[in-house]
Write a structure and sequence with these properties.
25% strand; single chain; 400 residues; alpha/beta
């Protein structure tokens, strides 16, 4: 009938019972007449456990060796799942990333996919095998194993679907789809039937942990239709695609991100090109800057405040202290970013004030604000993040 790519995360294959459950889902899809390629993550907390083992030996280990280590998690998963499918009586073969044709750049632990040579995948499909592929990994020009970073298995699955022009790419998780907020934290969070690529990309970037943002970006670029659904509850999930049918709901999701540090440069000499010097210095060290706020100049000085990931906060301060004089640099890691996302918000006046009202009513102070056509983000104290998400969600998505 078609070619289906299915991806299963670590929680979906966390133990023998769940591996067999995944094997049944895969083989049911195969029995319907489909060709099936399965992409699998490492089991449960395997990746975190491997990182902990590395830190016991050498916390400063070369990233090449970390990739050698971390790739072992997916190798275990694909072998066990292939054995389970074999036990059910179906033809199957497991492939590591490099065997499946994944070629990446040479940035260890954060590699980017350059291309996929799908010859082996196509050959195995032609033999009517179910193909189980290790996600999260590939090989670089030095024939070294590389890994794609957190959430890389989502990207692996979408890349295969794009390369082989699959009919659908299904991302199986431990939740039943994409919700308006984290259903484990926010009462009355609603599952969405459909969502656009742009909305999903914003949600993923702003802290929603359902899909990796790189996978959504790739799916949009190559027109891969995604479905996010549960591996534990066999019901329809959420479709991510370009022409999603818009619902009446203005706001599609409320997210929080606690991986944030707020860096403030105070009483900075207001000289031409100073902003360029600051942010080019950070860029040279691969420090990604998110929200930026600059004050009006006064008495020959100004303030620049920006956000980076929590791990990069102290590094940013260290770099800037070495290049800036006669100013004060402060880093606050006890902050969080709370955001609302919705493609229709730019045509609805009052969206921002409604969000700010919800925070005011909950006595939550806003430290920074950032807006775009489809999202509004605020920086607040980290301890207020959960209350903020609940309050904003109630304001925009009331109980039925």
């Amino acid at each position: 009938m078609g070619l289906i790519v299915q991806k299963f995360g670590g929680s979906s294959v966390a133990n023998a019972e769940r591996v067999m459950n995944v094997a049944r889902i895969v083989t049911d899809t195969y029995k319907q007449g489909n060709d099936v390629i399965v992409v699998v993550s490492a089991q449960g907390d395997t990746t975190d456990d491997l990182i902990a083992k590395a830190n016991e030996i050498n916390p400063s280990a070369h990233k090449r060796e970390m990739d050698q280590l971390l790739s072992a998690g997916e190798q275990i998963s694909i072998s066990l799942l292939a054995m389970a499918i074999e036990k059910l009586g179906f033809p199957v073969i497991s492939l590591l990333g490099w065997q499946a044709g994944f070629n990446t750049n040479a940035i260890y632990t954060q590699a980017r996919i350059k291309n996929i040579k799908p010859n082996r995948l196509q050959a195995e499909i032609a033999k009517h095998n179910i193909v189980v592929v290790a996600g999260f990994q590939g090989i670089n020009r030095y024939d070294d194993i590389t890994t794609l970073g957190r959430g890389g298995s989502d990207t692996s699955a979408v890349a295969i679907a794009a390369a082989l022009k699959a009919d659908k790419c299904q991302i199986f998780t431990d939740v039943e789809g994409v919700y308006t907020a984290d259903p484990r934290k926010v009462e009355n969070a609603k599952k969405l039937k459909e969502i656009t690529y742009d909305e999903m990309l914003e949600l993923a970037t702003l802290g929603a942990q359902v899909l990796n943002n790189r996978s959504v970006e790739m799916a949009k670029k190559y027109g891969v239709e995604l479905e996010v659904l549960s591996s534990l509850n066999p019901i329809p999930g959420t479709i991510v695609k370009e022409a999603a049918k818009m619902e009446k709901m203005l706001i599609r999701g409320v997210t929080k991100d606690k991986d944030v540090a707020l860096v403030s440069i105070l009483n900075l000499q207001d000289t031409p090109g100073i902003a360029f010097k600051i942010f080019s210095k950070l860029s040279a060290k691969n420090i990604n800057v998110d929200i930026i706020l600059q004050s009006f100049g006064r008495d020959g000085t100004k303030d620049i405040v920006f956000t980076v990931s929590k791990d990069n906060g102290p590094l940013a301060v260290e770099l800037l202290e070495g290049m800036l004089e006669d100013c004060r640099i402060v880093c606050n890691t006890e902050v969080a970013k709370v955001s609302i996302v919705g493609a229709g918000m730019e045509s609805h006046p009052g969206t921002a004030s409604k969000m700010f009202e919800a925070l005011y009513e909950t006595n939550i102070n806003i430290q920074m604000i950032s807006t775009s056509e489809i999202k509004i983000s605020v920086i607040i104290d980290a301890e207020d993040a959960d209350r903020a998400v609940s309050a904003v969600h109630r304001k925009f998505i009331p109980n039925d």
